[in-house]
Amino acid sequence: MILSLSRRYALLDRRLLGGRVYLGSTLWAAGHFGLGLLLWGLGSYVHRTGVDPRLLLVTLTGVCAAIALRRAAPGGALALATAVLAVDVAVGPSMWVAVSYGDLLYAACVWGRRRLAYGVLVVVGAGLAAAIVGAVYAYAAGWLPGLLEVLQIIGVFALAFVTPAIGGMSVREHHLRAELERERARQIERMAELDRRGAVAEERGRMARELHDVIANHLSAIAVQSTAALSMREPDPELTRRILGVVRDNSVQGLAEMRRMIGVLRDDDAPDLDRVTPRLSEADRLVATARDAGLEVRMTERGTPVGLPVQVDAAAYRIVQESLTNALRHAEPRRVDLTVEYRAGTADAAGRLVITAENGVAADRRSWAAELGTGAGLTGMRERVQLLGGAFAAGPADGAPERWRVRAELPLDGGAGRAGARADTDDDGGTERGA
Fold this sequence. Notes:
By secondary structure, the protein is α+β, with helices and mostly antiparallel strands. It has helices spanning about 1-10, 25-40, 55-70, 75-90, 95-110, 115-140, 145-230, 235-265, 275, 285-290, 310-330, 375-385, 415-420, and strands spanning about 15, 20, 295-300, 330-345, 350-360, 390-395, 400-410, 430-435. Helices cover about 65% and strands about 15% of the residues. The protein has a six-stranded mixed β-sheet. Strands 1-2 form a two-stranded antiparallel ribbon. α4 (about 75-90) runs antiparallel to α5 (about 95-110) and α6 runs antiparallel to α7 (about 145-230).
């Protein structure tokens, strides 16, 4: 039913004659003319001596023509109707011309410009005040027999002119409010679309980092071991068996991590993120894999380990993973020094987790400083650190081109920082786990 009414209204709102009139206004004007003609035939007008009543049909036609223009040109229609009303009062007046004029006041307040609408309201208010003053004066001068006639004059003026103007202003305000609500809804829709696009882009970036970290680490170990196997000049069954074992272990681990990630992406209801989120405490597995691949790893822990937030824990694990992967690819000699330091927080600053990986660089690869940050691994580590509000640096260690250093500082939450501050940490001490 609502859809049917909407279609009918859209049909009545159709423009005619190049937009000069509307179909609904034209039909409304025809209805006014028909009813006015009926009332004229019944004698609903003031008879004046020496005035042909057929002149009132001319004024009725004029005001109905103005009604046909009330949507396309509300100001011009009101001006035409005002002139017609003045003529009708001079030769009549007739009742329906006054009623039709009230309809044009309503149309000017609804569809006219803001200045026109408020101007009409001011003029009608001034006219009501003048009608009250005139009726009271006429009663005081004895021209009106009683107060009933005074109230009738005021009531007729208010009913014919004031009520349509106030009704039109009320409808205008409702239209403006509805338009504001529609604009607000459009703004909210645009903001929601922007948020959705931002969320999609952020999720794509996160998935790209996770996939790179998972695939690059295991495939790098596989590639290094495969190269070692292919470069053997003398067949060594024991070495070949050990290499194939490393290749198999890395393949299985990579496939397992990929399955866990895909399982989380497919589970829309309640994914168990803790089950698949890597932790820094599991870095021993990365170190063992790197050692099996032929990389000498010297890992040092400093400070008192504290509980890490999930995001910091996962980012630290991935940074260690990517650092070992890069060292496995490019370190010369094949050795890397990995340091994990827990720095206690203070009253003004939270604690920090500092991860440093340093290894040598072959002479033919010391041009890295000119390509700092161009690799996907370094970009991924930098993005992880920046998302957590930390600091990241990668480049030659202390300006020495033969040494490459990756350093990441990750902020800890206040509770973990205060817990770590209870212990007396010695920067020079620590637990070393060397190859």
